[in-house]
Each structure stands twice: as C-alpha cells, then as structure tokens.
C-alpha cells in the first residue's frame, strides 16, 4: 500500500487585538474634562468672594512650627528647581528614545512644554479681582506645582507598563508635598496648585491622544490594567481627602459668613491641604489608568515553517505477488466436489 502525502495546513496567524475607537479618543475626553475642571476652580476660588476668602484663609493659616514638618516642606520646596526638573524631563525623553519609543519621547516633550507654557501664560494674562479684601497679585496657577507634576507625569509615561503604577504612586507623593509646601511658604493658594494639576493632566492627555492616534489601526497585544494595589492606595487617599476637603470648606464658609472664629486658621490650612491631596490623587489615578491601558506593539509574526512532502512507502514485490496469488475467500465444499 502507498501512503498519501498530506498537504501542510496554513500556519496559525498571531492573535491581534484591534484598538477600539473609545480607547483612541478617551485621552481627548479626559483632556476636555481636565480643562473644564481647571476653569471651574478659577471661577469658584478666583471669581467669587467666598471662594477667595476660603482660599486666602488657607494661605494665612500655614504657620506650622513643627520642626520635622517644616524641614520636609522646606527641603522639598528648595529642591524643586526648574533646572533639576528640566533635567529629569530630558532624561525621561532620552529613556523613551532608548526604548525605541520615539512617540513617547515626543509626547513627553510636548507635555512638559505645553503645561509649563500654559501655566506661565495664564499667570501673566489673568487678573485677580479684589473680592476678599486682601490685595495680592495673581498667582494662579502654580508654576512649582506644574513643574513637579509634569516631571512626574513624563516618568510615568516613558517607563514600562509594569512599573508605571509604582512610579505614579511615588510621583503623587512628591507632587503633593511640593504643592502643600508652596501654600506653607505663602507662595501660592491651594487653588493655584489644584488648577496646576488639572492643567498638567489636560496637556498630558492631549499628548497621549496624539500617540494613540498615530498608532491607530495597527495590531497590538491585549490591554493591561494598572497595579491594583497602587489604585487602591490612590483611591483611598482620594476618598478620604475629598471628604475632608468638602467638610473643611463648609466649616470655613460657615465661620466666615455666619459664626466668626468657628474654626482656626490652622483648620483652614488643613482644609486646603486636603483639597490639594484630593486633586493629586484624582489626577494621578486618571493618568496611571490612561498610560497603563496603552497597548504595547505586537511582536513580529514568525515565518511559517517549511514542511517536506511525505514520501510514498515502497511496497515489496514478493508481498504483492503473494497477496495477489491468495484468493480473497476460501473455496466452499460444493466447489471442491465439482473439481
């Protein structure tokens, strides 16, 4: 008998995950919401007399005499220099280039330049109306908070996906300390730092939208969710700080309008600190979630293996002769009798 050669089947194609439209445009939606949040902060704390009063009370209540707290805030604020942060941003862009992700390197540069330029232009172009009786120049938004947040954001962006959660958690802690330190030093009001965080989130989301738009339609691996422990920590911090900020602002508002001296200036400062912590936690939750969901490029498909055709089995001549000589069935007894 001869063996029939079987045809080799088609090589299995690599699994491809098509990036959805929502995944592409979600950073643009986040950018719009972040810009709207920054505008709402300006309208509430700069455009109303009650908002200015609460903001200024938090600024004037930052006279903390605790030596350890003052040392941490002072060193963090003095170490936050634009030259150092610019170096960090350049290293982040270089790291992205070394990973052969020039799109992330360009996005990091856009994030830093756009956020800091927008902050300086807003600070120079906007005016602060005198509604709280404290004549002070406009300081909205905070340049130090913008620089610190933009540096932390680019590190989260260019690092590998497995490390972005931990980098984001460390960056959130650093940004929170810098932002609180600016209020403690009476350089900025809490709304200045909060608005700076939303501006950085808006610029970073626009940069990420450009990255996803450029990679639209290509194959990708499955999406990866951020570190669950990091998100739980940031979520708990956000929930507690939001509750503290809402309760504190309501108490300060009652103290300023109905019951004088209901709360102290220190309480107002702690309320502003809670607001800064809430904004920091929320913005980093959104940013870590956006960057962790970015799909990595798929590996190149392997070349199909060459298969040799099966060789027919050679049959023996003797076996074929013997096979043909034998009858298919035994003769019956009636046939034997006739012969």
UniProtKB/TrEMBL annotation:
Residues 295-339 are annotated as: Disordered. This is Phosphatidic acid phosphatase type 2/haloperoxidase domain-containing protein. The keyword Transmembrane helix applies. Residues 304-330 have a biased composition (Low complexity). Keywords: Membrane, Transmembrane, Transmembrane helix. The chain crosses the membrane at residues 21-41, 79-97, 104-122, 142-159, 166-187, 193-211, 232-255, 267-288. It comes from the Bacteria. The keyword Transmembrane helix applies. Residues 101-208 form the Phosphatidic acid phosphatase type 2/haloperoxidase domain. It comes from Actinoplanes couchii.
